[in-house]
Amino acid sequence: MFKLSEIPLFKTLENSKSILLAGAGGGYDIYCGLPLYFALKAMGKEVHLANLSFTYLPMTNSEKVFDQCYLVKAGDKNNHQINYFPEKYLADWFLTEQQEQVNIYAFELSGVQPTKKIYDQIIERHSIDTVILIDGGTDSLMFGDEEELGTPLEDSCSLVAVNKTSVKNKLLVCLGFGVDRFHGVSHFRFLENTSKILAEGGFLGSFHLLPTMPEVEKYMSAVNYVNQHMERQSIVSNSIVSAIEGKFGDFHRTLRTSGSELWINSLMSIYWCYQVQDVVHNLKYYTYIANSQTRGQLNQGLYDYRQQLSEVREMRKIPV
What we know:
With about 325 residues, the chain is of the alpha/beta class. The protein is about 35% helix and about 15% strand. It has helices at about 10, 35-40, 85-100, 110-125, 155-165, 185-200, 215-230, 235-245, 275-280, 285-290, 295-310, and strands at about 20-25, 45-50, 65, 70, 105, 130-135, 170-175, 205-210, 270-275. It comes from Xanthocytophaga agilis. It holds the Pfam family DUF1152.
C-alpha cells in the first residue's frame, strides 16, 4: 500500500541495504541509473554499478573477476581500434568530477544462464539484497508479440537472468519514453503493456527528473563528460538530457542524429518503475531463451518464437 505523498520505488527500497544498479540493455544504459545511484547513496544505501557491455572486454586491461565479467576502473584502457568504452569513461568521470573511486562490473554479451551466474556471483560478493535493472528506452517492456520489438534481446536476457536469481528485490526502471521509436518501438504498445502490468500489481508508478535536482545535475555532467571523451555519443542519454533541459521538438544535441527528425519532449525524462517478475511473467518468448548459453542461442530463441507466431499486435500511434 502506497500513499500519494510517497514515491513507490523508494518506499519499496526503504529497507534495502546493498543495491546493485545494472544497465539492462548494454551501452550507455547504466548512465540512465545515475540519478538513482546518487539518491540511494544519499539515503545511506550501499550501491554498486554494473552494465551489460558492448565493448570487447578481452581487449581491455580491466580486471577479469568472473567468467565473462570484468571490473572496470578509472584509467583502464581499451586496446581495440574502436574507442568505445562507456563504463571506463563513467569511472573516469566519478574520479575526476566527483573525487570518488567507483568501479563498474561489465558483462560480456552472452546467454541467460551465464548472465545469471555473473549476477549470482556479484550478489554473493556484496551481499546484494536488491537488483535494479536500468533501461535507457522502453523496449524492455515489449512482450514479444508486438509487430516491432526494437532491440529487446539484451534487456530480456538481463530480465530473465535476474528473475532467476534468489535476490530479494528485483526491479526494472526505464528512462527515455519515446527515444527508441526509430528502432520500431510502439509506445502505444508500451502503454498497453504497462497497463497490463499495473492491473497485475507490478507497476510501481513513474516520476520526473528535473534539472534542479542535484542527482540529475550529476547525470547531466556525466553525459557531458563522456561526450567530450568518446566519439560515439549516446543518442538516448543526449535526448533525455535535452528533455531535462526543457528542449522540445527537433533538437539535436549530438551529430549522431543529424539527418533525422527528433521529437524531444518532457515525457523522455520520466522514470517508469516495475517489478521484474511481473515483466518476465508477460515475456512471450521466455521458454525460448531461458536456458540459452550463448548470444547465438538467445538470438535463435527469439527467432524461433517469432517464426511460429500466428498473430501480432500491430503498430499503432497513441490517439492523442
